[in-house]
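User: Hi! I'm working on a homework problem where we have to compare a predicted structure to a textbook description. Could you give me the structure for the chain below?
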Amino acid sequence: MNPQIVRLTSGEEILCDHLFVSSDDDDDDGKSRHPMYHILKKPLVLIPERDGSMGFMQWMPYTEAYEQGVEVADSFVGFVVSPSPEVIGHYKSHVTGIITPPEQKLTLLTTPE
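Assistant: Happy to help. Predicted structure tokens:
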């Protein structure tokens, strides 16, 4: 899984399992689909909340895009960035249903001898 935030030229920010495909990659029949495109799997729209937190909503919930993924031409993508570890954890929990506790630093206490 490669969680990334993809900013579309429409302004939407999509959190998804992202794969970039270059023109060297061909379809099963040997033909190039697009010069360059992005495959967005398990796409979720990021929705900022008033209190500064963030919510997720399935992108195009009326389609099978969440399960099958969507091909987006490179010309419609403004940029792709890595989300923070906290956002990655929330995304993975949402997608898999497995909740992992946040990473905590271990503090060792020693006693004098």
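For your comparison, note the following. The first strand starts at residue 3 and ends at 8. The domain at 3-96 is CATH 2.30.30.100 (SH3 type barrels.). Good luck with the assignment!
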